[in-house]
Amino acid sequence: MKLMNILLAGLLLWGAAACSDDDKPTFPEEPTYDMTGFAKGADVSWLTQMEASGKKFYNASGRETECMTLLRDLGMNSIRLRVWVNPSDGWCNKSDVVAKAWRAHQLGMRVMIDFHYSDVWADPGSQYKPAAWIGLSLDELKTAIADHTKDVLNALKEKGITPEWVQVGNEITPGMLWDEDATVSGATYDVPKEGVTYAKNEKNFADFITTGSNAVKEVFPNAKVIVHLHDGNNNGTYRWIFDILKANNTPYDVIAMSLYPGTDNWQEMVAACVANMEDMVSRYNKEVMIAEVGMPWDEPEISKSCLTELIAKSKAIEQCLGVFYWEPQSYGSWNGYTLGAFDESGKPTVALDAFNQ
């Protein structure tokens, strides 16, 4: 037995000597991701619908990769998600938004929620009421806005997800929740559309934003409330709308812009947008950000130059919170959209290298 113990001890000593520091196996370091500071993000609201249709995403090496993980690896730290009230196909409803927000949250990414207050797209050409809200009185409309806002945000809260930013309305330059009856319309001017005119009521417009803003703060007091317009290069439009909100003491935290430059005029558009952001900071004492940007997917080098300049000049504005690309993961002319940043094979183009600077 003593001889056996001596032999075992010898083997252990030999093994320890054999496993010197030089011989220890090495493993690649896990990458670290900075999710703080300036927001570099993407609106990926189409993602679950694209996945359901069979779309897949690949990194530059051709390896299939979960989309949000891929965007994180490209330098993005934030995700933006739109909310529709009762969409006919279910995409972008409450449960779909929560599912996507959970995925972003699991990756440590920050979340922006974008309320459209519609069953369909809300943008400069379309600010239609949800079907269930048509015919409501003004007070009932405000209750519906508050209830919908809190319902979605509480669903996120139950999952442990705290959005950093919440938009109350999407590209609401022409107002929101249009109606032919001026007493319940939130249009910022008389909007002629499809044979009818949606009536102007600036007070309702401001009150609808106030209602949404108060609902956000009730659920998430520290979330930043965003008011978002299109044409970030058009300073006159921004002064017009935000003067209305100032006159009505409308509470909000951030002025957000969309910017979709052309390949032949991007330098002028970026310069005008940056000047507009600086004016908004000075005139209204608000923070600013780019909530949407996009360029033709098949001009990746020009897009990269534009995005690099836009991000750098935005970061130079102390009060600018970030830049978000709109649906960069779309490819193959998904839904007719050609301003994504992935190629026909489902790989990111060099345009997105701008987010890794």
Automatic annotation (TrEMBL):
Domain of life: Bacteria
Matching SUPFAM superfamilies: (Trans)glycosidases (SSF51445)
GO MF annotations, alphabetized: arabinogalactan endo-1,4-beta-galactosidase activity; glucosidase activity
Span of the signal peptide: 1-20
Record EC number: 3.2.1.89
Gene3D superfamilies cross-referenced by the UniProt entry: Glycosidases (3.20.20.80)
GO terms classed as biological process: pectin catabolic process
Keywords: Glycosidase, Hydrolase, Signal
A Pfam family matched in the record: Glyco_hydro_53
Record InterPro entries: GH (IPR017853), Glyco_hydro_53 (IPR011683)
Family of the protein in this entry: Belongs to the glycosyl hydrolase 53 family.
Name under which the protein is recorded: Arabinogalactan endo-beta-1,4-galactanase
Organism: Bacteroides stercorirosoris
